[in-house]
Amino acid sequence: SSSSASASSGAASVASDSQRPNFFVCFRVDNPRIVAQANKIQQAMVAANPRLQEACIPTYSLHVTLLTLRLTSSAEIAKAAQVLQVSRRFCRVVTHVCVCVVTTTNVST
Question: If you ran DSSP here, which 8-state letter would residue 57 be given?
């Protein structure tokens, strides 16, 4: 009975993985002052707890995630790209922020 319970929990985690986002929309943080402050924060965190080093991303990769998406077909990806192109033009006019899309296909968790 315990093996069937673990098998069903395994199936539940597979189902959950199939619903996980596989794309995210973000903008890059490239302001030198902000990057420098983020670097100082990371250094202080790691000094306080060296195990946190693994969780730190390189400051040249800093970004702000605006939203995540689960796209499962070429048609969904094409539609999302079309919407984001319109959003990109709008964001540049309103906030001078460049929106980029990054796939999480090659990112491990």
Answer: P
